[in-house]
């Protein structure tokens, strides 16, 4: 299909031609915003070049937004968590400057690991999801998964002769976020399968984990000492370790709210 081209189009004919061209070229943002942008261009006496730039930038910005939304959805985050909503004042043991540096995603570009270690309610899962979201917005492929869910999936894949395919799928993402590592003991088979995923990603793609156990306590999760040491090595070599502390600010916030309601 070709569009008729002629000089001296009426305003209505020109608008129709732009609409048809945008459909053909798959430019939905220009198609929807063209009338308003054209009116603004006329009012502000933009040059033809300036008007064209505004149209193209609007399309590029909207495509970037939609791409980020797809990346975030594909990551499978269980909740919407952002750095903007994280209360750094409530947990002074966390270095806000370091977290915002991590949000720039240079560590992901280099394929380095990240460990968030701390007790329940100290914000480690919030930070894991928030940093994963920042990575998705920066156009990195991200996948979030609970440690137990990942191990169960690997065991099922091994039983169904699909292990290689499953490990490759987890190996392809730029950032793998593993939450709640250390909450449950893993048998040797599950631990070995998890180790295979970490080995597949080593020094190529980043892994970020959140755990309620310090590394010295990981032998309760990975009962084979040698395997435990190898996993810790994979998750710490060249990376960042953020300790979120032991005081639950989530519990403190709940108590403060209850006290305010009692006073009121």
- Main sheet specs: 5 strands, parallel
Query: What proportion strand?
Result: 5-15%
Report the order of strands and helices.
Answer: HHHHHEHEHHEHEHEH
Mean pLDDT: 88
Oligomeric state as shown: single chain
Beginning-to-end CA distance, first to last residue: 70 Å
Number of strands: 5
Backbone CA Rg: 25 Å
Count of DSSP H/I helices: 11
The helix content, as a percent range, equals 55-70%
What does this structure look like?
The chain is α/β, with parallel strands linked by helices and 264 residues long. It is built from eleven helices and five strands; from the N terminus they run H-H-H-H-H-E-H-E-H-H-E-H-E-H-E-H. Strands 2-3-4-1-5 form a five-stranded parallel beta sheet.
Relevant terms:
11 helices, single chain, five-stranded parallel sheet, alpha/beta, 5 strands
What secondary-structure arrangement, pairings included, does this model have?
Layout: H1 11-25, H2 28-43, H3 48-75, H4 96-102, H5 106-109, E1 114-118, H6 124-137, E2 142-146, H7 147-159, H8 163-172, E3 175-181, H9 188-201, E4 206-211, H10 225-236, E5 240-245, H11 249-263
Parallel strand pairs: 1-4, 1-5, 2-3, 3-4
